[in-house]
Amino acid sequence: MALSLAALLLACSHSAMPLPSAMQQLDAADLRPRTLEGDVRIDCDVKDAEVFLDGVVQGQVRDFDGTEALLKTGDGVHRVEIRKPGYQTYVTDLVAGNTIVVISVHLQQM
User: Fold this and answer.
1) β-pair partners for 57
2) Buried b (16+ CB within 10 A) or exposed e, 29-42
3) Is the dihedral of CA 50, 52, 57, 62 positive or negative?
4) Which of 39, 95, 96, 106 would staple 70 via disulfide (CB 3.0–4.6 Å)?
5) pTM surpassing 0.85?
6) What is the pLDDT of residues 23-76, one digit of tens each?
7) CB neighbours of 45 closer than 8 A, spacing ≥ 6?
8) Which residue in 106, 108, 93, 107 sits closest to 40, CA to CA?
């Protein structure tokens, strides 16, 4: 004969056995909101072009090509610009969060 969930929980609450891990009390760290973080890998033929995130310079293309590091954006909508004097500026808006976005671009010389 099957026991109901309420009867099972009542029986567990009166026993000396520890509760299964899934039913244990949550630690305070588990209750903090988690920040989703977006990562961007930039594939560009002009490695010394500057990379801007939301209007703020972050480094050069070579810094975010995935071999050493990725551009950390945080979640949400962001504008990425790739600039170098003598080349057309590349601009894109992207939605980042808990994933890797790959930007592949060929900068056109002016």
Assistant:
1) 52
2) eeeeeeeeebbbbb
3) negative
4) 39
5) no
6) 445 444 444 444 457 889 999 999 999 999 999 999 999 999 987 789 998 888
7) 105, 106, 107
8) 93
> Which pair of structure tokens corresponds to residue 92?
């894109």
**Contact 108/87 with Cβ under 8 angstroms?**
yes
Fold of 39-105: Immunoglobulin-like (2.60.40)
Q: Is residue 101 within 8 Å of residue 40, measured between CB atoms?
A: yes
Q: How far apart are CA 34 and CA 31, in angstroms?
A: 9
- E strand or H helix at 10: helix 5-13
Place of tokens 């170098």: 84
- How many C-beta atoms surround the C-beta of residue 25 within 10 A? 7
Q: How far apart are the first and last CA of the chain?
A: 81
Quote the CA–CA distance of 23 and 7 in Å, as a whole number. Answer: 15
Strand-strand pairing, 100-105 and 39-44: parallel
